[in-house]
């Protein structure tokens, strides 16, 4: 469990698959700017078992589940390196309350504290202002535009690519380092 001030991130378990599948298949949760995904429970269970995707539930302090945040690998075909990318969605009723900004800050702290990586990246539709603000508040910088890289509701769409480098992050913002573990 990664503990923040208003939300915690908890690694998804098998019993979280039904709620995750419900969200992943729901247009309102994916929002206007993400592709339409249809995922079965079996596919979600397989995803939880792969080392390439790590899914966390975003929970409020009362334990209610309000969304998810994941980190996963993407291949940089030019160099063959694997880059870590993050993605997230909250249920509509819990948006606009600062929860996702905190969730992304926690995830960035966690990844830089626990892995020997120099960079974390994220992509977001150029129209998705809320997501861009979330990333910028967590210290990500916009690197450029990936033209016609997404296919959303029948249209090719442009994405911004963002990243934060270890030297820009400098130190944990929410999680603090302890001798043996990472905790709040
Ligand atoms: C993107 C998303 C995760 C943002 O989560 P959130 O918890 O609502 O974000 P926050 O409350 O932390 O808000 C971050 C900033 O965006 C602003 N914001 C929120 N919704 C906004 C909107 N619809 N348009 C413009 N700005 C918005 C907030 O005011 C805040 O800015 P501020 O700190 O300057 O006031 C959420 O809107 C969502 O789940 N959308 C659908 C899925 C999605 O698009 N995921 C991202 C794919 S890349």
Summary, kept brief:
The strands form two sheets. Strands 1-2-3-4-5-6-8-7 form an eight-stranded mixed β-sheet, sandwiched between helices. A two-stranded antiparallel sheet has the order 9-10. The longest helix is centred in the middle third of the chain and has 16 residues. It is of the alpha+beta class.
What would your notes on this structure say?
By secondary structure, the protein is an alpha+beta fold. Helices cover 27% and strands 39% of the residues. The strands form two sheets. Strands 1-2-3-4-5-6-8-7 form an eight-stranded mixed sheet, sandwiched between helices. Strands 9-10 form a two-stranded antiparallel ribbon. A hairpin with a 2-residue loop joins strand 7 and strand 8. Helix 4 crosses helix 5 (129-137). The termini are close together. The model has no long low-confidence stretch (mean pLDDT 93). Coenzyme A binds next to strand 5, helix 4 and helix 5.
What descriptors fit this protein?
single chain; 184 residues; alpha+beta; 8-stranded mixed beta sheet; two-stranded antiparallel sheet; 6 helices; 10 strands; 27% helix; binds coenzyme A
Task: Explain the layout of strands and helices.
Elements lengths: L1 E2 L3 E5 L5 H8 L2 H4 L10 H9 L3 E8 L4 E12 L4 E10 L8 H16 L4 E7 L3 H9 L3 E12 L2 E11 H4 L6 E2 L4 E2 L1
Parallel strand pairs: 5-6
Antiparallel strand pairs: 1-2, 2-3, 3-4, 4-5, 6-8, 7-8, 9-10
Helix pairs in contact: 4-5
Bound molecules: coenzyme A.
Coenzyme A binds next to strand 5, helix 4 and helix 5.
């Amino acid at each position: 469990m990664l503990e923040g001030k208003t939300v915690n991130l908890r690694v998804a378990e098998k019993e979280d698959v039904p709620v995750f599948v419900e969200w992943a298949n729901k247009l309102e949760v994916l929002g206007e700017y993400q592709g339409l995904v249809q995922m079965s429970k079996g596919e979600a269970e397989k995803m939880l078992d792969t080392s390439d995707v790590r899914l966390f539930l975003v929970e409020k302090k009362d334990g209610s589940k309000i969304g998810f945040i994941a980190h996963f690998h993407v291949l940089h075909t030019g160099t063959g390196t694997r880059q870590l990318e993050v993605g997230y969605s909250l249920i509509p009723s819990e948006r606009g309350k600062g929860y996702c900004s905190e969730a992304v800050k926690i995830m960035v702290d966690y990844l830089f504290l626990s892995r020997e990586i120099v960079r974390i990246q994220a992509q977001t539709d150029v129209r998705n202002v809320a997501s861009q603000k979330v990333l910028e508040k967590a210290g990500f910088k916009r690197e450029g535009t990936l033209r016609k890289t997404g296919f959303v509701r029948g249209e090719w769409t442009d994405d911004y690519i963002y990243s934060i480098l270890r030297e820009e992050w400098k130190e944990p913002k929410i999680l603090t380092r302890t001798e043996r573990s990472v905790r709040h």
